[in-house]
Write a structure and sequence with these properties.
2 helices; two-stranded antiparallel ribbon; single chain; 2 domains; alpha+beta; 82 residues
Length: 82
Amino acid sequence: MEEVKLIDDFTNTKTGRTSNCFRISYRSNERSLTDDEINDLQARRPAKPSPRELVSAVILVALLLCGIAMYMVMFMTVVYCS
């Protein structure tokens, strides 16, 4: 992938949702790329996460932050009560 460029964006005034249009340029220094190679590269792009995956990620981060907070409270208790 040589370049990713935002070429247009649109915001719906009623819903406030925004759509973006990107131009993605692929280039090889050794040879011309075939359509099949470009299609394979496009297919390997990360997919947009599902709402369930986003909720799982938020829960995981929250649990990690709670764990860190609990560790800090335990550490402070040991340090200051010793």
